[in-house]
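[job 0412] stage=fold_complex status=start
inputs:
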Amino acid sequence: MSAVLFFIAAIGAIAGAIGVIAVRNPFYSVLSLVFHLISLAALFLLLRAEFVAATQVVVYAGAVMVLYVFVVAYVGGGEELAAGSGLRIMGPLFALALAVELCIAMLGSSLKGISSKGAHYSSGFGTPAHIGQLFLTKYLFPFEVASLLLLVAAIGAVVLAQRRRGLDEDKEVEVRVRAPRPAYTGTMAEAAGLRHAVEEFEDSGPPIAEHVTTHKGGW
Amino acid sequence: MHGGEDGQVFALIVMVVAACEVVVGLGLIVAIYRRRMPIDVDELHELSG
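[job 0412] stage=fold_complex status=done
writing structure:
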């Protein structure tokens, strides 16, 4: 039974990984990576590392990849490499070198485990209590460094999202505020008679707020 | 060597690094995109924005 699940999860992981590079639409390749990460979580479960499996689904596939999906949906994909560039040859070559190295590492160290029943399993292997204990005793320094790294990333996010006055004004907002909408698009201001429809969509003058100075009641 | 519990810690640290990479890297991309600069790295060689 576990062999069947292993092959299902392994084939899913490989299919997801191939889908990341082979699919044209960048949105689909991000979704393929999500499928790959969920297959990896199934493999973690088969290795009895249940906390890592749950964290992988919740944090990696559920937060990190969702942010990737947001950014790919907002920014869109890039362009494909030009046909004759050197990168089209060097890319697969480096991937092949990496694959050969991984095969050497795997064959050199893990072949003796094939005929055995698996590694020794101590009770409470993958539980959160066990991993928490590890983080607080044996791996205390990486734990603190990781939390420092998260703090730096959070501060960096706040700094990157700032708008600095004078350095760049957000041109999107300006265009939307200053240019009145085209005629008869059904805005509330048109319906209330507070502004007149503009026949052409052009950048014509002061923002909407200046037209409503004679407004008496309502909200 | 096999069956040690240290690999799980490594996997979790990799997840932490991936989260930080998302925040900083994609934050950079979104900030560049919002300032109407091309996201192509080959075209960003002068920081004119």
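[job 0412] summary: Helices of chain A lie at 2-22, 26-46, 50-75, 87-110, 128-136, 140-160, 171-178, 188-191.
[job 0412] exit 0
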